[in-house]
Design a protein that fits this description.
About 45% of the residues lie in helices and about 15% in strands. By secondary structure, it is α/β, with parallel strands linked by helices.
Length: about 170
């Protein structure tokens, strides 16, 4: 729609910083490289702190992703935070510690969540939630499948809009 004419496709994560492991940063950097015009919005209480922002800017830069493709936001109240999902096209789930509440909040706001299912409970929470919601096609079993799934979704804005509306 017209909203996409105004801004590049935006991936997002509202997960807390401890979940943003080096494995997560590497995987998300692969996604950003696979979808060259995209950007990543990271929102967490820690990002009110400039040193936390600098740390993650460096981690993404080490993976070949420039600062211009990243946006950091700190905490706001719940209703304002939920409204910020309007700025996200596809939520990226951290690995191996999946979102729980954040996955449900994104889905509630119509934002699909791409997850890489791992082993054990913490790495399968989002897969369980997505499967229960009839969105099993957003569950990847390998990093390669995760990147491919997100890239395909990013290339089909009409399908993303229809999913959000539903």
């Amino acid at each position: 729609g017209s909203e996409h004419a105004k801004r590049p496709l935006t991936f997002g994560s509202f997960n807390n910083v401890p979940k943003l492991t080096p494995h997560t940063v590497r995987l998300w950097a692969r996604v950003l490289k696979a979808v060259p015009e995209s950007r990543l919005l990271l929102k967490a209480p820690s990002f009110r702190d400039a040193s936390a922002v600098r740390l993650f800017e460096q981690r993404f830069e080490d993976e070949g992703i420039g600062r211009d493709r990243l946006e950091f936001r700190g905490p706001v109240g719940l209703s304002d935070m939920m409204a910020e999902y309007a700025d996200v096209d596809i939520a990226l789930d951290p690995v191996p510690y999946n979102g729980g509440t954040t996955t449900l909040q994104a889905m509630w706001m119509g934002v699909p969540v791409a997850t890489l299912a791992g082993r054990g409970h913490a790495a399968r929470v989002s897969a369980s939630l997505l499967a229960a919601a009839g969105l099993a096609d957003w569950i990847a079993s390998t990093p390669e499948a995760f990147v491919a799934r997100v890239k395909a979704a990013a290339g089909d804005l009409a399908a993303l809009a229809a999913l959000r509306a539903a």
